[in-house]
């Protein structure tokens, strides 16, 4: 488990932009934290780091949005309104050659892969966030080591 502190949305975006450097097709990331914690802000940074040119918005109503203008596809999901009992076919995305990032992934534990890089974002104050990361699985542990050792990701 490792923690980073950010002091503005820009710092959170900077962090996840650098994280994107280490991602490969098939990687799955989860984002947890209360409404307004910064999950979508984090996803915007990932998109930027992957070179996505489209505007990235919260996929709360569509559940999934695909962005294909970057160096690999980004599948951005928000399962706030989904429960673990529903099969909405999300797992079909995991092996489609892109990176998947899932907001509110704690709602659908049964549908998540074993190899997972999990981020929890906690709001400390209006502009301060604590980002906690855990890795499970060989691939995620590798990404974890890379981002923990990346000085650019420290604020
Ligand atoms: P979520 O997707 O978790 O519901 P959003 O990313 O949509 O949250 O919104 C986060 C809000 O918090 C934005 O209005 C953003 O400007 C604000 N914010 C303030 N400080 C930070 C920070 N350090 N990191 C991320 N967002 C922040
Ligand atoms: Mg969101």
UniProtKB/TrEMBL annotation:
First-listed, main subcellular location of the protein, grouped into a coarse class: cytoplasm
Keyword ATP-binding: yes
Subcellular location: Cytoplasm
SUPFAM superfamilies, sorted: P-loop containing nucleoside triphosphate hydrolases
Alphabetic keyword roster: ATP-binding, Cytoplasm, Magnesium, Metal-binding, Nucleotide-binding, tRNA processing
InterPro entries referenced in this protein's UniProt entry, alphabetically: P-loop_NTPase, T6A_TsaE
Alphabetical list of NCBIfam families matching this protein: T6A_YjeE
Family assignment from sequence similarity: Belongs to the TsaE family.
Protein's name according to its UniProt entry: tRNA threonylcarbamoyladenosine biosynthesis protein TsaE
Protein source organism: Sporolactobacillus mangiferae
């Amino acid at each position: 488990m490792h923690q980073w502190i950010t002091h503005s949305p820009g710092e959170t975006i900077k962090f996840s932009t650098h994280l994107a450097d280490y991602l490969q097709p098939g990687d799955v990331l989860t984002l947890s934290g209360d409404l307004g914690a910064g999950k979508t802000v984090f996803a915007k940074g990932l998109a930027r780091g992957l070179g996505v040119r489209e505007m990235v918005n919260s996929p709360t109503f569509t559940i999934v949005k695909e962005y294909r203008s970057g160096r690999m596809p980004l599948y951005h999901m928000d399962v706030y309104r989904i429960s673990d009992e529903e099969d909405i076919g999300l797992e079909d995305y995991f092996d489609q050659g892109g990176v998947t990032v899932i907001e509110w992934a704690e709602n659908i534990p049964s549908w998540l892969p074993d190899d997972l890089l999990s981020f929890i974002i906690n709001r400390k104050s209006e502009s301060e966030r604590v980002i906690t990361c855990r890795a499970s699985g060989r691939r995620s542990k590798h990404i974890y080591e890379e981002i923990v050792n990346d000085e650019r990701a420290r604020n």
